[in-house]
Structure formats: structure tokens, C-alpha cells
């Protein structure tokens, strides 16, 4: 069944000394894809930029809002409000290893197979990859990755930071959704399965009542290509479905940061991220 | 009478007799170089030496220097010009134009639709893994569709006399200031040579560049504001930045002189802020915009990339061009020419292997001692291993590096670079040379400055010519064609031979406008030349 979700995402910074010459890019607008329809989306910034923001689609297909602020300001506040229709998960048809290993596939998805800063190759991973390759099909291997990551990591907020790599998280044995996603990508790529980082929102209650609002968070999961792309959420052990709202995809977190920028001024402190999701239909 | 060329011998290099740019065989100058040869041969040693002294004095006074590993040295101009025949030049010129056309189309495709990747002309993984493939440039459409306002296409000539492309430079190629200054210096020191040779001029390069930059302006009004963005005085090519800005009559700015607001770039002046339309930047991509690239860069202009994305400013050359001058990508340029233009390449590549391909890696690994190994994104000769001259330890290290990171290297056959007589110490000896022709694309035409920068390996038998490796340069002459033959300079050889003696004090030769040989004015000049 299709869900309709309203999302309110707020974040920002405060500055020890007023900031100026601040240049920023925001990636918080949900995508429209074959399983998600974005009905409304706005981005609001305080202090408000003197003219309209530049809006563009980046290389990865994510909607970007860019703005700059020159008047000194003590805080920056960014809000994204959107209304999105999502659909239940569908499992892709079974695939074969031959399909995955085809040189054309390998070339086409080289960006989603190569190691990256957050998703490096490493010893701890190659053993897992060997095991995954013994699975009957690539899609079975994807399911096995999720099981392996749930064993390897304990969900624990605060144990890792936004800079933590997949291997660091593996060594520490704990992490949050970003770490679960990065570690899954490391295993999938080592096994030769093209896979990408998915960034967005997650509604945690499966049987939410209409009109029920919940405090959520930004979320991350992965998409794997086994003949076609499909999403799977290693943190929650489910396929990406009607409770997942997709904002962007990339090789890893660094391709889809919700808010990034530079400024001149005093040290910045994050005001935190507040995400509120309401099921409206 | 002098004897400048008397003991000149043409050397062997990597198993071949090198092609000499002046001599067909010892003592016999090539067609077109005869006039120059005879005139120089007629000079006494004292005379030649005094012109060398005048050169050094003047270069030092003018501060025309190049930074060699941190030390500023006068740019070593060799006083024996290199002559390129008109017919040879036509091939180079057409080949360079063809290459730039194909590379422009490739860049537009890579940062747009990616059709050539879907058609697998170039493996997508090579583009995706290029350090200079900047995804942030995706979707930026330059106002007049030009991404390569300036290209420097390095060519070398092998023992068979054919020119081959060594590499493309599509980011911020430098060296044109030396081409112009070398010519000015030669005209001062040897006015008599220019009186009797019709050397195609190079000094309208700044005007052509300015025209191309103005044509790139997003605002279609009469007087676009063009600036030259330099990283500053500590940059190795700062002299060239200042030179070009001055010659074009445009402001020379640093990052702190620019400010971006609401995706419009302004220049701070003492009076007010002025909107900037075109930034001819000599700052590398990595430092250009800390919003998208290195956040610690202080020499760039924050926001300029999104200003270009919104179509409010043109960045020349465009962001991300490095993906097309990656040396591994260079090996595909002949395929790109066939694919995009439906033409056969006019200039072949130097034979190059791709270690990234396991079969080719296996092939080269056994014979690295006969090959050259180059990093794909190195420039200035850094990181290059010349197989025949390398020690066993160097070869072993190069081999390990190749196997570990095959994507990061190309391997080339050693070209026995052509030689040119060069003044070294107190004699004239053969030294290896290459050529960097410069092309300017204004969106309508691609124009190649006649000649280009001839770089000379000043060390005996060295095949590395980069100025950052201690190389020198030569004034490079393309001689206008004669009617009836293409033996440019020979016509007046006899009268040149009678010119000798001292340099006229403070001689300055106004060479006047030297138009392209295909137009009528040139015909007139030819008439005049024949009558004197």
C-alpha cells in the first residue's frame, strides 16, 4: 500500500563569533523515482538569503539548494519540508553471478564497485567477500550481507562520528546507520556487487496510524544492483519500502551530505538535527 | 668568418640517427633552413658571444625567469632558431585543431550526456577513476560551449621525421609568454634575420586570447569584464600571468580580489565592485573554489563554480578539463577523433601502452628498460622513469608501482627526439627538442599560434625537455610559403650570407603586421620581398 508522509527536517549551526562569507549547499529534498513521488518540497533558510537560492541536480541526481550569506549572523537554520508518496518494497527477480561479473556491468557500475574513502577495501572484508561469493545468487548474497553486518555491529549512537570509515566501525564493533551502510557497501563491493549509499528518512513504526507524527532522524541504507537496483536497510534488517524516503544516492556519505559549506567566523556548533515524520495517508 | 656549425654531428639516440631540425646530413642544411644556417655561419664567435651576453642582460633586467625547484633563473633562450617548414606546419596546425575539436566534444559529453561512454569509445571506469574527473562540473554548460579556450598540445618528432603527439594540456598550459618574449628578443638581437625571412608572427596571441575570452562571456553586451586570476607571486608561472594580463589589458587578480554574491562574481576595486563576466584562471581546479574543492584553499574564489553553473560567469579553461588530458585518456584521442568527427587523426600519438589492460601490462613489464614510464597526471616531467637510463633499483621500483597501481601510469616507447643545433658552452652541439603549439578556441575558430614553444634538453643526449627539469627553449619559426614552392627561407640566402658584424646598438625592428599567408596582403609582401 502506498504511504503518504510529511517530513519536516531542521538543522543548523550556531557560531562562537558571527559568521559571514558563508557558502552552503543543502541536500534535503526527496527524489522522485519509480517507487517514490515527491509532491511538495521546500527549503527555508534563516537568515534568509537576499535572493532566491540556486537549485540544481548534481551528478548523482540529488536536488541541491545552494546559497550564500554575507551579513554577519550568529546562527544558521535550514529547514526542509516535503510531502512524499512511497511504495512498498519489491524484491528483484533472481539474478546470476554471470550477470554481475559481465565486463560491461563492471564498467558501467565501476563507481559503485571501487573502494572509496569511507568504504575502503581491507583484510577484514575480503574473507566475507569470499563467503558471499559462495551464495547461490547475488541477491542471496545481498541478504547475507545484511545478516553479517547485524552480527558485526551493535547499534549504538555516539560510538562513531560522521568521519568514521567502514573498517573503523568494523574494528569498533558498533555504530549507527551510516556505519551499517558503509560496512554493507564494503562487503558488497568486495564481492563484486555494485552498490550505493542511500540517504533519506525512515519512519520507524510499521503500523503507523494516519496523522501520527513521530520524531525520526536522517537515515542511511544501501541499494544493490543484481540485474536491477533495490534498496535494503542493514540497520533495521528490512527492504527499503514505504517507510523509507529517499533523498540522495552516491558512493558513500560524502556524495550526499545534507548540509555542507564554508564560512568565515567563530567556531561553529551544530544545533542538532530534528526530523519529524507524519503519516498523512 | 665564423665556423659555428663546423664540427656539428647528428647524434644517435635509442638506436637511430636522430632527425636533425637544421641538417639533412652533416654540413647540408635542410630546405628552408639554409638561409638561417648561412647567416649564422657567417657570424664570428665574438659576435655570437656578444649577442648571448646581450640576451642574458636583457632577460635579467626584465625579470623573465622560470622557477626551477624553487630557484628563479633567467629563461635560457638558445639563439639558434628552430625552423619549421610551411608544409610541416600545415600538418601540425591541422592536427592540433582536429585534436582540440575532438577533445572539446569529449568534455562536453563527459560532463553531459555521456554518449561516448554508453557507446564504449572509452571505458567508463577510466573516466570515473580519473583524479581530474570533477563531478561538480557535471551539468555546467559554458555560455559559448567552449571549455578549452587555451590548449597546449605537446608534439615530438621521431627519427623518421614524423610529428607525434606526446600529451595534451587542457587545464592551464603555460609557456606562451616565452614564445612571445623569445621572438622579441631574437628580433632585437638579430634584426637582419627577420629582414630577410618571412617568419609568421606570434605577437598577436594576446589579442586572440582576449577575443576568445570575451566571446565566452555569458552577458551579451559590448564590453564584458575579463580578469586573469593568478594564485600569486609565488606561482612558478607568475611572470606569464602578469605578462598576459598586461598584454591583454585586463586586471590581474588574486582570489581575495574577487567576491561571489548570489552566484555572481564581483571584483573589488578602489571605487566599487565591478561585475566580472569571464575569469581566465591560472589557478588549478583543486584550489579554485573551496566550496567544492579543497576547503583550505585561500587562492580561489568561494562560490565561483556555482556562479558558472548558474551561467553568470565563464571560467576559462573550464573546471574538470583534466579528465581529458589524463595521459591514459590521451591514448584514446585517436578513437575520439574517429568517433566524434568521423575523421582519421592527422597527427598520430606516440606509441603508448596502457598498463591498466592486463595484457599490455604483461607485455611492458618484461621490457621496461627500453620504455618510458609516466604517471597519468604528472606534468613537468616529474615522476617520469626513462627506462634506458634508469638503474636496476629505479626500474624495480617503477615495476612495483605499475603492478600496484596500473591505472596511474602509462608506458611509452622512447622516442628518439629530433635534435637541433644548440649553443652549449663555447660550441654548437645537437640537443633534443620538442614542440608545444598553443591553440585558442573562441567558439567560432580554433587558431594555432604559428610555431609554439620549442623546449630543449640542455643536457647532452637527455630526452627530457621540460623547463621545470632544467630545459631551455628556442625561437620557433614557421616560414611563410613561397609561391611555387614551400622552401621558405632559402630565397635570400645569398644576401643574408653577406650580413655580419655587430648588432646595431639598441636595434629594434618593427616587424609590422604579418598576416596569415593566405590573404592578399601577404601576396604583396612576397612581391616586395622578391624585389629587394
Note down, in words, how this protein is organized:
The complex is a heterodimer of chains A (281) and B (532). Helices cover 21% and strands 41% of the residues of chain A. The N and C termini of chain A lie close together (10 Å). Chain A has two domains: 3-87 and 257-279, Sandwich (Immunoglobulin-like); 97-255, Roll (C8orf32 fold). In chain A, β3 (54-57) and β4 (63-69) form a beta hairpin. Chain A has helices at 97-101, 103-108, 123-133, 138-152, 166-172, 177-190, and strands at 3-26, 36-46, 54-57, 63-69, 73-86, 154-155, 174-175, 195-202, 213-216, 218-225, 229-233, 238-239, 244-250, 259-264, 268-279. Chain A is α+β, with helices and mostly antiparallel strands and 281 residues long. In chain A, the strands form three sheets. In chain A, strands 1, 2, 3, 4, 5, 9, 14 and 15 form an eight-stranded antiparallel β-sheet that branches. A five-stranded antiparallel β-sheet of chain A has the order 12-11-10-8-13, covered by helices on one side. A two-stranded parallel ribbon of chain A has the order 6-7. In chain A, α3 (123-133) packs across α6 (177-190). Chain A has six helices and 15 strands. Chain B is of the alpha+beta class. Chain B folds into three domains: 1-201 and 325-350 and 416-484 and 505-532, no CATH class; 219-312, Rossmann fold (3-Layer(aba) Sandwich); 353-413, Dna Ligase, domain 1 (2-Layer Sandwich). Chain B is 31% helix and 21% strand. Chain B contains 18 helices and 26 strands. In chain B, strands 7-26-25-22-21 form a five-stranded mixed β-sheet. Chain B has a four-stranded antiparallel β-sheet with strand order 9-8-23-24. In chain B, strands 11-10-15-16 form a four-stranded parallel β-sheet. In chain B, a hairpin with a 2-residue loop joins β3 and β4 (28-29). In chain B, α3 packs across α14. Chain B is globular and about 65 Å long. Residues 485-532 of chain B have low confidence and may be disordered. The interface between A and B is medium-sized, with 24 and 23 residues.
Amino acid at each position: 500500500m502506498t504511504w503518504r508522509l510529511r517530513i519536516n527536517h531542521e538543522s543548523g549551526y550556531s557560531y562562537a563569533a558571527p559568521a559571514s562569507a558563508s557558502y552552503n549547499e543543502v541536500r534535503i529534498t526527496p527524489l522522485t523515482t519509480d517507487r517514490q513521488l515527491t509532491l511538495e518540497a521546500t527549503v527555508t533558510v534563516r537568515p534568509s538569503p537576499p535572493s532566491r537560492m540556486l537549485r540544481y541536480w548534481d551528478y548523482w541526481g540529488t536536488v541541491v539548494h545552494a546559497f550564500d550569506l554575507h551579513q554577519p549572523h550568529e546562527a544558521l537554520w535550514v529547514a526542509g519540508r516535503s510531502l512524499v508518496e512511497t511504495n512498498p518494497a519489491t524484491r528483484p527477480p533472481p539474478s546470476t553471478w554471470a550477470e554481475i561479473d559481465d565486463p560491461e556491468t563492471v564498467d558501467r557500475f565501476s563507481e559503485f564497485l571501487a573502494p572509496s574513502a569511507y568504504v575502503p577495501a581491507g583484510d577484514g572484508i575480503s574473507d566475507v567477500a569470499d563467503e558471499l561469493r559462495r551464495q547461490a545468487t547475488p541477491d542471496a548474497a545481498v541478504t547475507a550481507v545484511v545478516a553479517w553486518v547485524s552480527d558485526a555491529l551493535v547499534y549504538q549512537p555516539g560510538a562513531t562520528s560522521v568521519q568514521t570509515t567502514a573498517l573503523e566501525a568494523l574494528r569498533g564493533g558498533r555504530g549507527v546507520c551510516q556505519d551499517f551502510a558503509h560496512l554493507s557497501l564494503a562487503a558488497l563491493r568486495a564481492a563484486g556487487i555494485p552498490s550505493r549509499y542511500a540517504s533519506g528518512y525512515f519512519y520507524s513504526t510499521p503500523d503507523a496510524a494516519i496523522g501520527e507524527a513521530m520524531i525520526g532522524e536522517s537515515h542511511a541504507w544501501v541499494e544493490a544492483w543484481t540485474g536491477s537496483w533495490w534498496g535494503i536497510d542493514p540497520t533495521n534488517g528490512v527492504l527499503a519500502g514505504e517507510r523509507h524516503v529517499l533523498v540522495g544516492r552516491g558512493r558513500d556519505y560524502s556524495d550526499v551530505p545534507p548540509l555542507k559549506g564554508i564560512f568565515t567566523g567563530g567556531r561553529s556548533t551544530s544545533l542538532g538535527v530534528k526530523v519529524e515524520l507524519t503519516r498523512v495517508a | 668568418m665564423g665556423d659555428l656549425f663546423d664540427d656539428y654531428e647528428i647524434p644517435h639516440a635509442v638506436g637511430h640517427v636522430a632527425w636533425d631540425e637544421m641538417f639533412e646530413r652533416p654540413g647540408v642544411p635542410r630546405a628552408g633552413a639554409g638561409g638561417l644556417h648561412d647567416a649564422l655561419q657567417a657570424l664570428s664567435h665574438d659576435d655570437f658571444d656578444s649577442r648571448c651576453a646581450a640576451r642574458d642582460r636583457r632577460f635579467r633586467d626584465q625579470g623573465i625567469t622560470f622557477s626551477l625547484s624553487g630557484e628563479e633563473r633567467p629563461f635560457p633562450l638558445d639563439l639558434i632558431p628552430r625552423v619549421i617548414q610551411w608544409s610541416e606546419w600545415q600538418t601540425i596546425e591541422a592536427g592540433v585543431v582536429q585534436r582540440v575539436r575532438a577533445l572539446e566534444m569529449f568534455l562536453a559529453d563527459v560532463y553531459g550526456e555521456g554518449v561516448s561512454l554508453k557507446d564504449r569509445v572509452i571505458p567508463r571506469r577510466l573516466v570515473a577513476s580519473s583524479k581530474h574527473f570533477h563531478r561538480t562540473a557535471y551539468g555546467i554548460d559554458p555560455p559559448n560551449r567552449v571549455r578549452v579556450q587555451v590548449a597546449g598540445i605537446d608534439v615530438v618528432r621521431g627519427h623518421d621525421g614524423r610529428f607525434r603527439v606526446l600529451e595534451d594540456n587542457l587545464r592551464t598550459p603555460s609557456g606562451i609568454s616565452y614564445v612571445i618574449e623569445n621572438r622579441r628578443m631574437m628580433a632585437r638581437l638579430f634584426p637582419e634575420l627577420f629582414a630577410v625571412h618571412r617568419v609568421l608572427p606570434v605577437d598577436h596571441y594576446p589579442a586572440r586570447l582576449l577575443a576568445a575570452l570575451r566571446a565566452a562571456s555569458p552577458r551579451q553586451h559590448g564590453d564584458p569584464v575579463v580578469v586573469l586570476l593568478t594564485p600569486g607571486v609565488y606561482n612558478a608561472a607568475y611572470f606569464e600571468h602578469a605578462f598576459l594580463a598586461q598584454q591583454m589589458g585586463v586586471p590581474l587578480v588574486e582570489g581575495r580580489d574577487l567576491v561571489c554574491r548570489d552566484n555572481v562574481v564581483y571584483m573589488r576595486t578602489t571605487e566599487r565592485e565591478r561585475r566580472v563576466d569571464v575569469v581566465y584562471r591560472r589557478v588549478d581546479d583543486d584550489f579554485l573554489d573551496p566550496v567544492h574543492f579543497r576547503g583550505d584553499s585561500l587562492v580561489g574564489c568561494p562560490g565561483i563554480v556555482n556562479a558558472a553553473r548558474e551561467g553568470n560567469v565563464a571560467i576559462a579553461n573550464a573546471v574538470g578539463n583534466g579528465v581529458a588530458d589524463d595521459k591514459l585518456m590521451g591514448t584514446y584521442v585517436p578513437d575520439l577523433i574517429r568517433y566524434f568527427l568521423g575523421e582519421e587523426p592527422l597527427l598520430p600519438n606516440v606509441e603508448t601502452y596502457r598498463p591498466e589492460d592486463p595484457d599490455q601490462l604483461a607485455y611492458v613489464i618484461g621490457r621496461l628498460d627500453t620504455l618510458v614510464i609516466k604517471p597519468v597526471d604528472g606534468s613537468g616531467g616529474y615522476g617520469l622513469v626513462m627506462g634506458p637510463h634508469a638503474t636496476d633499483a629505479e626500474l624495480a621500483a617503477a615495476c612495483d608501482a605499475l603492478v600496484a597501481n596500473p591505472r596511474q601510469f602509462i608506458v611509452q616507447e622512447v622516442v628518439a627526439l629530433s635534435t637541433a643545433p644548440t649553443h652549449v658552452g663555447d660550441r654548437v652541439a645537437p640537443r633534443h627538442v620538442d614542440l608545444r603549439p598553443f591553440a585558442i578556441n573562441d567558439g567560432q575558430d580554433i587558431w594555432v599560434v604559428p610555431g609554439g614553444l620549442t623546449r630543449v634538453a640542455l643536457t647532452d643526449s637527455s630526452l627530457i625537455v621540460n623547463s621545470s627539469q632544467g630545459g631551455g627553449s628556442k625561437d620557433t619559426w614557421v616560414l611563410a610559403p613561397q609561391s611555387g614552392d614551400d622552401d621558405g627561407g632559402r630565397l635570400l640566402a645569398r644576401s643574408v650570407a653577406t650580413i655580419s658584424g655587430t648588432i646595431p646598438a639598441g636595434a629594434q625592428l618593427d616587424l609590422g603586421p604579418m598576416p596569415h599567408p593566405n590573404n592578399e596582403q601577404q601576396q604583396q609582401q612576397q612581391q616586395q620581398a622578391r624585389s629587394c
